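Re: duplicated header lines in exported structure tokens

Our pipeline writes sequence and tokens for each protein into one text file. With two proteins the header for the second block appears twice in some exports. Here is an export where it did not happen, for reference. First protein block:
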Amino acid sequence: MPHFFTRSAAAAAVFTLFGHHVSQAHAQASTQLDDVTITSRALGNAALLVPAQQLSGAALTQRQGSTLGETLDNLPGIANSSFGPNVGRPVIRGMEGDRVRILQNSGANLDVSGLSSDHAVPIDPLTTERIEVLRGPAALLYSGGAMGGVVNVIDNRIARERAFDAPGGVMGKAEVRAGGAANERSTGAMVEAGNDQLALHVDAFDRSTQHLRVPKDMSCISGMATTPNGRRVCNSASDSQGGAVGGTLLFDRGYLGLSASEYRSTYGTVAEPTVSIGMLRRHQVMEGLLRDVGAFENLKFQLGHTNYTHTEYEGAAAGTRFDNQGRDFRLEGRQQALRLTNGMQLDGTIGLQRESNDLQAEGAEKFVGPSRTQSAALFTYQALKTSWGQFSAGARTEAVSVALREDFGGNVAQTQKFNPFSVGLGVMRNLRGGESQNGWQISSHFSANQRAPKDYELFAHGPHVATAAYEVGNASIGLEKATQFDVGGEWQQGGHKFGVTAFSSHFANYISQQPTGAYRLADGSPGTTADLPVYNFEGVRARFYGIESTAKVRMAGGQDAVLTRNAAHGNMDLELRADVVHAQDLTHNSPLPRIAPMRLGADAVWSRNAWGARLGFMHAAAQNRVPDNGASPGVTTAANTLWNAALNFHTHSGPTHWLLFAKLDNITNKLAYSSTSVLTQTMGSNAPPLAGRSLKVGAQVSF
């Protein structure tokens, strides 16, 4: 792969974007910024059965953060497992880490972000087209162990349908943004060109941030020394670049495409004032689809290869290094629709998937030995449409082997084998008459999930600075098992909408870290209360339950005869959202750690012609349900209310669209802490709070 993803890549792509002539054919079908609700691998109306959320278009642009977790944070049921401003994975319904599967274009995203809280996900929202969250039976297409859900990050590096006619054309997008509490400076660009037989894609981004500004005085603590750092979080700056090239051959019965991408990032780890992480990920993908193959409407395959490495630097000296090489293969077939009696229709997908990755850690602070994880899976998802609604069912069986390749931490080299099996059922009752979108729609989902333990849950043995603990794996631990159920309803009447979902998850064997009361030095020898507490991985019984709700009230504008008299002043909506999750370790009768509190949010959203504005707040209740940290009580978080506002202007000239936007977050500069961040528990009074008042502005142009 050409090594051209440097600081100048984004600027070069922007120049390319404006230097090409736009064909007349494409000028008649210009890029739109409207939000489109799409669910991954939707089977006709099967999207009705998937309790999914998505971000795309202008909504994604305006919510975009520096991490995937920050971008999705505060969507109903989703929080951010923040490790400072540079690292954040989504937490869904209280579940984090490897219980949330992160995909890229429906393929495996092989990194080590699940291994440690300070390891970033090597995906940047700047080059993302849309983000989808899947739960229910459809999630079994991708994972049986994703009890929280599946997050699918989608780009267009491989074109899956024709965007140009025979004469060909060019389209693209460029974006710049600046400001915020971390003084962000970022640029991103994408260019696509081709005709009805060939599509080419190039994208690149560059992002840099300074130390995060917060509403309190902070210090840099190193050993016995404490250095004041003003109202900035110590060691929280970052510098990231990346990009990709892709090409696709398009033909009447399908396509065949290749893409290669690179992601580089250097960022401070926040927990240690002199330690930074240098990350590099290279990823290559081949993907193809063939239509009308016997009993299948189409067959699709995907083959990926990933080289990932990151090094933890102590000052300028290289320290612990993690290398992960992974391969994944996926083959799936969309069945021809089977039309049954009484207007019923059966749609479905079946397929197989295989993944393999080799993890190697070297250095004084490695806490896992060299390992190899291999898995093979068969899966299916079926949807039966009826005149009154729909049934769905999914199943997935896997064979997983996790091998410790050499003696480590008291464990001899060994291979543990697991055979997880997961099933899911769903039903939707549509009470809306005919083609009307008004009225109620009721849905419910049940699943029995199993997850094979990860290498670190089996074989970890060493000091883990990110969690301030000495972690010890359990080679005899069994499958994680959960039974999950949710029921919800959605109502719509014109511009008014309301939805609510209640969920419950019961774990017969929830793999968690439990304090032992012992302490060790970094070399593993016995320590005192001033040293690292020892945490063992252990299977416990656990229970999660909660409620998510959203509503939109059309205060003025269209779709209601009473309100249209105010339409000259634009549309005004009141958007409401709320969620709460309760999580308990039933074995030890203790709360589970890092759970978001009850949250309530409201936004007044106005739009008129090219203008749009938003003013609202998110209130987080106090989180007092925290487990003990060994011999000491856990750290609670106080209630807070964060106000925010946004303004955008959208215009176009011919095929060129402009979006100008500004965001003002934490308007009152409120001091607040995240209950889902491990740093809140481990760093005491010097834990980084959420960002202070910040203004970020940006512009996006597309054609």
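Second protein block, exported in the same file:
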Amino acid sequence: MEIKVDNLNQTLLEETFYVLSKKNCVFRVRLTRNGLCLVKESEKNIKEQIIPIRDIVGCRCLRSKKQPKGCTCQSIPHSSSLEVVEDTSGELDDSDISAYLYVYAYIFQISKSSHKRRERTIITLRFRSFDRYEDNHKEAQKWRMYIKKLIKGDNVANILPITSNNQKEDKRLLILCNPKSGAGKGKQIFQQKVVPILQEAEISYDLHMTKHANFARGILEWHCGVINGIFERWDWKEAIKSVPIGVIPGGSGNGLARSIAHHCSEPYLPSPTLPSALAAVRNNFAPMDLVRVETTPQIMFSFLSVGWGLLSDIDIESERLRMLGGQRFTVWSVARLIGLRSYGGKLWYLPTDVPLTIPKEHFSYQSNPGSNLDLPAEVHLETQTGRERVDSWYSANSRKSMYFSATGSSYQSTTDSLIGDSSHGRDRPVVHGPASQIPCLTAPLPTSWKCISGRFVMVHASYQSHLGEDCLFAPEARLNDGKIWLLIVRAGATRSQLLHFLLGLSTGAHASTQTEAPIELIPVNAFRIEPDMTESGYMTVDGEHVQYGCIQAEIFPELGRVMVP
């Protein structure tokens, strides 16, 4: 253990840098496997700060920009007046032979009020030990290569010489942007919050703007990404274990993004996009449970929740208030409490102490990454109707879009050939995936299942901790705990009990004070809902409206992978 600590603290590179904005002040900078150690020496004292590698997203070598005509140049410019550009720019200041290394970090901080947050920090290192820019640039590039290797977790024992070939990043992101999510600020969020971090990390990407429901599924049957798009691929077994999925919050709920941050103890507010953007550039991932959902017309794979009753009513009916953002849920919750509804039917569930047909280890590839994933394959035919072609004017390059491009990145409207249409000329695309471990929807259930019959205000199942940014639905849930958390609210619940329940969702208090008989939160492996079809209502999967009727779901532990900070 001591040898490991010594190796982490071993100095890889060391240099002394002068502070541009202050006289008689220098920094001694040491690079170790742990991070950058900054030792500030002034006339009065010495201060030391460590920037952990895990907080650094990237670094870039830049050169000073040519000063405007008529400007009195300084031999050592102040940091406030220094402007830098790429060394390929035509605006280079040839009089400055220095090479500048910009290191971008998001440092974990705890405020005086004990609130956690990340603070963006830029460390500027000015290399000017040599008489030629080329030599200074070579030294700066050496530091850059070491830092980039450490960020990726690669071996730094042998650093290759700097060439145009090995400077290129081998990672490329596929980004799907829904411009109509939430309050309709998807494009703005991507441009202002996400692109700067991608540029700091020098991550190339392909951007596709979604146009209509299920649009992303068509793209990802080819590119491999969102969950149900992956399960429409013939090679889904390889795709599901080789491509992690990330989500950057831009909608009204943002339950998965909030759950990921909660799982990793990562600060989420006041910058909800930051944890997801950091996860995308750092290439960290964790296994995540997926749930196979079966309805009468289709089979899908879900990452968040299945709902029937009150919360689904609020979710779907508040769509007319989408311009309010997340506040639409609060407004409609009040309306639904006033006009309280209940629904008749049967609820079946399989408790977690009763195993599913196939043991977890038979399909959990994360427990042994070197083994072959051997899931029983299933083919299900799902009818697709009414899919429109995507018009090219909707490209991010249109005049209505305001994007600036990172090097090597591309923007596509996905109008060409097969990309915009997941059916590829078929009315019934093939959906693959692991075979069910429970009886089909029309078959009777074993006696090991428990049944509740009567009227319900709601039945809502979640496999993540949060259903929304301020909705801590299942405080004990984790990304890969192998459980479905089933909340049952029977028709006997009063409006007062329901009000306390809804208020408790923001803190998770509803789960710790379940003393009321009509409200129950239990972990299960699978469940089935059989509603009374003489009534109408809403059912949702991951917040999306599905056909009202019989529905069942079962857990597949650690089947997916998700990007984490």
